[in-house]
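Hey, I'm writing a tutorial for new members on how sequence and structure tokens pair up, and I'd like a real worked example in the thread rather than a made-up one. If someone can provide the structure for the chain below, I'll link this post from the tutorial.
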Amino acid sequence: MAVRLWSNRVRWRPARGLVAAWGVVLGLTAISAAIVFGLVREPPRVAPAAEAASAPRPPRITSLKLPPRPTDFRSLSAAEREAMIETTADGQHLPKISPSGWMPWIAYSRRYAPEGPAARVGLLMINVGADEALMQRVIDELPGEVSLAFLPGTPDLGRWMSRAHEHGHESFLMLPIDDPAGTIERGIRPIEGSAEAAENVRRLRAAMARAEGYVGFVMPAPGPVSQQDAVARPLVKELADRGLALIEITPPPGISAMYQLTVELGVGYARSSTVLDYKLAGQGIGANLNRMLEWTSEGRPDQPRHDFGVLQPDPQSIDAVVAWRKRVADQNAVALVPIIGHFECRDACMARMRAQPAQLRP
């Protein structure tokens, strides 16, 4: 498996008024007025080794809480789930928006309660599935609040995603893009900047058909696919039409083409440049987790902060997350929530949400 050497990019600062989607969804309920307006400052970047060696020791971490919830996931009937599946003429089973307005990115997201702390952190484990033993450890050992992004070429993917769901993990699929430095998958043709739009959509649908019950796709790295409107637009439109969400990892500085398209087409969107297993960081994953948590906890009550970190599935990452979770488990000022708690949903997205009012309830 080829592993990307992550670059240490400056975190994007969203425009004022940017709204975290699920915070808004919860805020629209009668039981909560908690609306989170994006990120108010730059979250902590992962320091290179030279900086880490000279940096002052970070303050002691004293805050993390898992907010109470009635159940991990929504209880949807078999008929409701079936209504979110389209069977194509060639036998593919693809996600779709149900006739009643249910969108898969909300229906299959993990729930969390609005009465939890407004300051939030999250963890996304990407490229899950290349190694079966590691995949089993990720699913079984990591807290359920850790969201997982599976490689669509994972053998027996549906069974593994069902197992992840049983362990409380919200699931995504990695967008299969042509990336020489990324993970190479057997049986999956990558989306390419040089391919015709219709062919790229066909390849995207082939990835979609590999499993059911996921929230959306993760764009693993910037490149021609994400930075050219002519390439990205048909892909984002396909996600929009099927009620799926999009995450960008280490997007280019500023407002990306993918982000602009999600705003225009009404797609739930999240992004993060907080790469917790950055290979040149001098203090390790545990210190990076602490730094993210410390930054989040410093927000003002009227401007709570949130951030989520990304890491790859390897023994060191798994051990570090498990140990960190145990160290801070009994604290209560910052909530560890699934990645749905870090999404944005602008006007077009919220209009689509209102088509099924039940989507606006926690």
